[in-house]
Design goal:
rod-shaped, mainly alpha
């Protein structure tokens, strides 16, 4: 059991927590940019639709 834990500790094949944090930050930045760019357009579409109701 101890040998397995030691082997897992030295395994460098998968992404680390730092790499996951960088990917999460990049995805968050893209989502914020898309909402900022298209937010006004979507808001206007909904306002126009509600006025027609």
């Amino acid at each position: 059991m101890l040998a397995l834990l030691h082997k897992l500790g030295k395994d460098e094949d998968g992404p680390t927590a730092v790499e996951y944090a960088i990917m999460l930050g990049a995805v968050t930045a893209v989502i914020v940019a898309v909402v900022w760019i298209f937010g006004g357009t979507v808001k206007n579409l909904f306002e126009d639709y509600t006025k027609k109701m």
